[in-house]
Amino acid sequence: MSTVELVPVTVAPGGFAHEVRAASVVWKRDLLRFWTDRGRLISSFMQPLLFLFVLGKGLGAALGSGRGGTDYSTFIFPGTLATGVMFTAVFSAISVVWDRELGFLREMLVAPVSRVSIIIGKCFGGASVATLQGTVLLALAGLVHVPYDPLLLLGMFGLLFLTSFAITAFGLLIAIRAETIQTVMPRTQLLLAPLMFLSGALFPTGGSLPMWLRIAVRVNPMSYAVDAMRSVTFHYLPDHGRGAGFATGLTWWGWPVPPWLDVIVVFTSGVVLLSVTCWLFTRDE
Q: According to the 3-state scheme, what is the secondary structure of 246-280?
């Protein structure tokens, strides 16, 4: 009777460094997938460009410039950046459903790492991919009369990553309970449209908006991302954008919401969404 020889298996030691390494592997995988998929790379830029140059120029010709000479394309530039990274971040997040269907997610789950590390790596991977796309769009700022000021570009880069982080966490929250890509896509489309149209990306959030629309805009976390980007952009325009009729920002009962509070709202939303996602993902699979 033959004997079976047992071969000892060495498992990597656990600990914080081990979990960070696991998260970084998931993060790098998302970046490689995006970079090698040229069709996805090109198509991800088309919608923001259509908003910026087709919708922006078309509506701009009908509406004219805001008071102070601000062009409509300049006004929607921050909103275009925010919505552009929103779509990329969400679709990067819901790729976890493809991983489940192909069996790759199960392989990650049997690895000696925590599920929280997998979700965190996935979240930062999606956020990085979306930020890279937003950075390319940011390079077009001069075409819509936004100056290439180093501080403006640095501030916008940070806001792009923060927005991408929050939206990727939102996308993961949708995706972790979906069994198939056919299930998650309708849910995503249903939720993304209100997030985009109620963010103030394409219209001023003050003025004569109906009360129900003002409330909807102010409870939408994307509104604060757009408001922060718009505040930074208009700060570096000539005369800080004062007198620009399109530049009305968010207010709470008449009080203008400052950019630092916008950042806190977006960051808090991202942390809460990611925490809920990690909790749900660790319960069962």
A: CCCCCEECCEECCHHHHHHHHHHHHHHHHHHHHHH
